[in-house]
Give the backbone structure.
Amino acid sequence: MKKYLGTGSASVIAAAMLLSVGGSGQALAQQVNNIPVVQAVVRTAADAVAVASPATIPAAPTASVALDVAREVSVLQRAGWPLYALVDKFSTGDPLTDEANCIAVAVYHEARGETLEGQLAVAKVIMNRAASGRYPTSWCGVVKQPWQFSFVRQGRFPSVDQGSSAWRKALGVTRLAVANAVQSVPSDCLWYHADYVAPSWGRRLTRVDKIGAHIFYRS
């Protein structure tokens, strides 16, 4: 399975980027003329109350819930709660919106074999693509964009095991990401790929960090 994200000409499908699935790979490919932008928001608990713009928070009720989560996470972090405990706590809660559910499904299918930090980074990538102005402006639009996430087939998602721990983690990660409550890769981090491939576009970028099996870059 292809495990990288890259660029290509207007006449060919761009190279594919990894977002791994439970130990095996899934690709995130794209077809653009410019270097594609894959961004991730950084918010610490202290500034989490400044929740993202409407491009990343699709509806006012979601923003209100996100603010509540951010405030609670801030308190819990000050009490010393680690990420795994936060993810577990927020694996249950208010039902996700359709838009947030698209993030959770992507995290589940693309990154359930990654660390929680890696799963959070995947969620941030989706959110920031929507906010970048260079991709669809909704989270579902980003995930369903042709040639992006290889687990999507003709705009449709495969099923998830809703009773699995992987799905519960994806829900917790998504709630934290939507709330911008936990620090992740920086906002100018645009791309990432699997650590066992070396796409040529990586030489044109600045490496930011390695999280699990993914290497992140800024342009």
